[in-house]
Amino acid sequence: MRKITLIAHISLDGFVAGEHGELKGFDAGEENLQFVAGLTKHADCALLGRKSYQMMDPYWSTANNLPDATAGTIAYSTWYNNANKIVISKTLAREKKEKAVIISDNIIDEIYKIKNKEGKDILIFGSPSIAQLLLPQRLINDYWIFINPVLFGTGIPLFVTSSNKANFKLVSTKHFANGELAMHFV
User: Fold this and answer.
1) Rounded to an integer, what distance in angstroms lies between the CA atom of residue 4 and that of residue 140?
2) Is 84 exposed, middle or buried (0-12, 13-18, 19+ CB in 10 A)?
3) Which of 8, 51, 116, 139 measures 20 to 30 Å from 18, CA to CA?
4) Model confidence over 2-23: pLDDT tens digits?
């Protein structure tokens, strides 16, 4: 069975973005990007919500061709272009984009099917709505939470109030020069 890993950047107060989706304050940098690119080596699939997909796809599908592309940018963009993309959306038109599949119905059942297919692991990038949907079903196996040294005050939370309690075990941490702290939970 394939593992699903959530990779999310959050503020100190638990938000993945500001109130209107802005990401000011998340200064990842090359060191961080190369680290995340390293996490992609065991995965061949990205699971995204509509907003994350529409935000990521235009940039990452061509970033490896930028004249000033760094090693991390090239590595991540190359992985992104080769990875299958599963987009969860009830409103996104069914795109005819290579390696992208839109799921709009029976989402949990479809994720179970995908998880049971042969292949490498599946990565969720940000996509708090997807994390919130899959967490109660215990479909996420690993969590890489990147805590950034910024307070948003208000914004889009990674996790919402829920009656489903979940305990996690911290297995490793990585501190970056920009002050960001990556924590790996299972």
Assistant:
1) 5
2) middle
3) 139
4) 999 999 999 999 999 988 888 7
Only one residue has tokens 């939970």, namely 185
CA distances from 54 to 12, 17, 87, 174 (A): 25, 15, 10, 29
Tell me if 26 sits within 8 A of 9, measured CB to CB: yes
Q: Which residues pair with 102 in a beta bridge?
A: 87
* Vertex 153: Cα angle to 147 and 155 (nearest 5): 80
Residues of the chain with pLDDT under 50: none
Write the DSSP assignment of the chain as a string of letters.
---EEEEEEEETTSEEE-TTS--TT---HHHHHHHHHHHGGGEEEEEEEHHHHHHHHHHHTTGGGSTT--HHHHHHHHHHHHSEEEEE-SSS-----TTEEEE-SSHHHHHHHHHHSSSSEEEEES-HHHHHHHTTTT---EEEEEEES---SSSEESS---S------EEEEEE-TTS-EEEEE-
Q: Which two tokens stand for residue 105?
A: 């119905």
In sequence order, what are the beta bridge partners of 17? 156
How confident is the model at residue 65, as a pLDDT?
96
Fold for the domain defined by 4-53+83-185: Dihydrofolate Reductase, subunit A (3.40.430)
Cβ pair 179, 27 in contact under 8 A: no
Q: What is the length of the chain?
A: 186
